[in-house]
Specification:
This protein is α+β, with helices and mostly antiparallel strands. The protein has four helices and five strands. Helix 1 crosses helix 2.
């Protein structure tokens, strides 16, 4: 917390620790609002099979922020959320839960547009299934895997 926030808290009769606690609550509320926003967007695709995981998750928890078919969603919102760390967190949680879902990080900078990130091979697999009719819509082996999509020239 910066000096301005602490000074404002002191003027309002709160201690620094009370002000920090309030800032933490505001941050959690902002995260919860963003998760609800993402869940509502994904309901357009997956319908009522999409829900926001309730409550705060802690290290070692294996719940996606937004639970829906096919993808494991990790949401981050803030001044400068770390997209790579969010994606790695989604991959780790999905892997430790035994899920076969594709990990996706949906991040939003304050006053910015949300960005969805995933590994290129996962994106190519989704495109192959959508445009080439691969694998009847399930997230597993697709017809695109017949070609080497991992090579970069």
């Amino acid at each position: 917390m910066d000096e301005g926030h602490i000074q404002m808290a002191n003027e309002q009769g709160r201690t620094g620790s009370e002000a920090k606690e309030n800032m933490g609550k505001l941050s959690r509320n902002k995260g919860a609002r963003f998760e609800r926003f993402v869940a509502n967007k994904l309901k357009r695709v997956f319908g009522e099979n999409t829900t926001r995981s309730s409550g705060q998750c802690f290290s070692g928890d294996t719940r996606a922020d937004v639970d829906c078919p096919e993808i494991w969603v990790e949401c981050k919102v803030g001044k400068r959320p770390n997209i790579k760390a969010a994606l790695e967190q989604a991959e780790e949680a999905a892997g430790s839960s035994g899920s076969e879902k594709t990990a996706v990080a949906i991040c939003k900078w304050d006053r910015g547009e949300p960005i969805a990130s995933m590994r290129l091979d996962d994106f190519i697999d989704i495109l192959c299934r959508a445009y080439l009719g691969g694998n009847n819509g399930s997230m597993g082996t697709s017809i695109c895997e017949q070609e080497d999509v991992n090579s970069s020239s």
